Amino acid sequence: MTTMQDPLDVQLGGKKLSRGKLPRGTAIGLLVLSVVVMGGILQMAGSFGIVLTVFLGVVLYAVAIMVLAGAVEGGRAARDRLATTFMYSAFALAVIPLISLLWTVIDYGLDRFNGYFLSYTMRGVFGGMDAGGVYHAIVGTLEITLFATLISVPIGLLTAIYLVEYGPTRLGRGITFFVDVMTGIPSIVAGLFAYALFALFLGPGVRMGVVGSVALAVLMIPIVVRASEEMLKLVPNELREAAYALGVPKWLTIVKVVLRTAAAGIVTGVMLAVARVIGETAPLLITVGVVDSVNYDLFDGRMMTLPVYVFRQYSQGLAPNGITTINYDRAWAAALTLIIIVMLLNLIARLVSRLFAPKTGR
Amino acid sequence: MAKRLDISDLNIYYGDFLAVEGVSMAIEPRAVTALIGPSGCGKSTVIRSLNRMHEVIPGARIAGKIALDGEDLYGNSVDPVQVRRNIGMVFQRPNPFPTMSIHANVIAGMRLNNRRMSKKTADEVVERSLRGANLWNEVKDRLGKPGSSLSGGQQQRLCIARAIAVQPDVLLMDEPCSALDPISTLAIEDLIGELKKDYTIVIVTHNMQQAARVSDQTAFFNLAGVGQPGKLIEMDATEKIFSNPTQKATEDYISGRFG
User: Which residues of B211-225 are buried (b: 16+ CB within 10 A; e: fewer)?
Assistant: First the structure.
């Protein structure tokens, strides 16, 4: 009996509690080595390229670490190393486009991005003139998006409250279904809808900021509903019961306990919705149009917005005289402005949600 | 303050399911009444029906009568919100409001109902309630800290302070110590002993020693089997139930033969 090994022991790696361990930093060292070796091989083969080298280097690393860890640390550790390699590669793949995009926008946009660009409009600017800015487009984007938020947050939040607090009725299931359908509406259709709605009352050809706000609100509402619904569901039922047991009516419980507890998450959700629609171009092109000078009035006439500005500048192509690439430069600088605005809004939302977050600590 | 509750022929349903059948009992003022029995026998359901909290669950309803000093709690013109203002409740798991400070938690019953009060009154209510819940000395220097910063036992006493701050007639406690350690449990039990001077207290507990220690009256609930409704088997003075119960099932339960 003593000479025979228990089959279960073999399966679980025996009774030994310790196993071999690769020294710290082996993984990093091996990765660098793999990439360098692969670079050398490709160089000799005469087909050196950064992307190919890194890709094949990582593949070589994955094989090498599997073999090495399998020999020293055992099969489970080898599989763990492989899975780790996959996860880091996936993360890198996901981040590379983002960094590349930011880099490109900053690289191209920084040329014309300055105080003058931010504080002047395109009024009286033509050809390759070394002038023109986005002030009117910033005003338009901020006003239209703000008004869209004012429309969609009450509607979206109240819908979410109905769905979570007043429960799974047939009406509730219907609303959930249509909210899901709304999520998939193409933005151009939302633009056409808003245009058609206002054209009914104000006649065809109507173009003003508020129409754009309605179009954006159509796109925002389902996102706000979804985000708020998830946040309200996270509020523990015990808190509702605690409030009821104190003789607090249901509506006050919802306003002062449920919404208050979920506020941080709701703010974040609304911000995501804003970030999603602030870059919409197509519906605004239809509903708000294009203009060269500043218009503060949402309810009267065309307005410029940043995404439309980018589109407009880029579509004008090379200028016939002066600075020939000026239109492209302005488009990139406006794109940079838009990204900065979104980042600032996100920053503000983080601060606000930190303010609202349930307090912890002693 | 401290009113009596009379329950007669109470049936409680969840949808079509009869959860509790034929309960009749009298809950005396300024005394502690303990509800004991095995899991699923309907103790919590009964205690939640006493301040109409079970109605929060969709489909829950009752038949029969529950009267607070003779006034039917389920009368047509009775507002469940008013019932809950007069019959407070403490839950199994401590549930202070996470967004509020200790101070704000205690006066949550007033603040959430939009009742205005001066800072002086608020401070008085907070001190009185926290003293009433034996918590004042532990938290008086950090009233502005969040309620969730307290230990589990302190949180539960904070919840009791919150419940007595609105000066209810009756205080219901649904297994208030089951999530707490023995020392916190002892603190809560001592507190129950003091609170019964002013309040009618009903407590649900799984812990028979606890029922024997804190209560004046004990009601034993049991159910015939899974899916059967829970019933009140026997209710009597606590000493009688624990020394000389009339029913065989009660004796079996408290002597640990089942449940």
Answer: bbbbbebbbbbbbee
Rounded CA gap, B95 and A289, in Å? 54
**Domain A119-355: CATH class, spelled out:** mainly alpha
B93-132 exposure pattern, b = at least 16 Cβ within 10 A, e = fewer: bbbbbbbbbbbbbbbbbbbbbeeeeeeeebeebbebbbeb
Q: Is the pTM of this model over 0.90?
A: no
Q: Which residues contact A295 (CB under 8 A, 6 or more apart)?
A: A136, A139, A140, A209, A301, A302, A303, A304
Q: Please, are residues B2 and B10 in contact by the beta-carbon 8 Å criterion?
A: no
- Sheet containing B71-72, strands listed edge to edge, beginning at the edge strand earlier in sequence: B71-72, B60-68, B5-14, B17-27, B230-237, B217-223, B32-36, B200-204, B170-174, B87-90
Every domain of chain A and the residues it spans: 22-108, 119-355
Phi first, then psi: what are they for B167, rounded to 5°?
50, 65
Type of residue numbered B167: Q
| A247: chain B residues, CB-CB within 8 Å | 81-86, 109, 113, 166
Cα A17 to Cα A20, A69, A74, B80, B200, distances in angstroms: 11, 17, 13, 62, 60
A15 pLDDT higher than 90: no
Scanning B30-59 for CB atoms below 8 A from A yields 51, 53, 56, 58
Terminal CA-CA length for chain B: 36
Which candidate in A359, A360, A362 is best for mutational testing of the B interface (most B CBs within 10 A)?
A359
* Residue A14, pLDDT score: 61
Q: pLDDT tens digits for A214-230?
A: 999 999 999 999 999 99
pLDDT in tens, B63-109: 999 999 988 999 889 999 999 999 999 998 899 998 899 999 999 99
- Complex ipTM value: 0.89
Query: How is residue B8 written in tokens?
Result: 């007669």
Verify whether the Cβ–Cβ distance B97 to A360 is below 8 Å: no
User: Which residue from A348, A220, B115 is spatially nearest to A356, judged by alpha carbons?
Assistant: A348
Which has the closest alpha carbon to A357: A220, A237, A263?
A263
Q: How far is CA A182 from CA A177, A179, B102, in A?
A: 9, 5, 43
3 state SS of B17:
strand
Give the angle subtended at the CA of A255 by the CAs of A251 and A257, to the nearest 5°: 105
Encoded tokens for B122: 């608020």
Contacts of A167 in chain B (CB under 8 A): 58
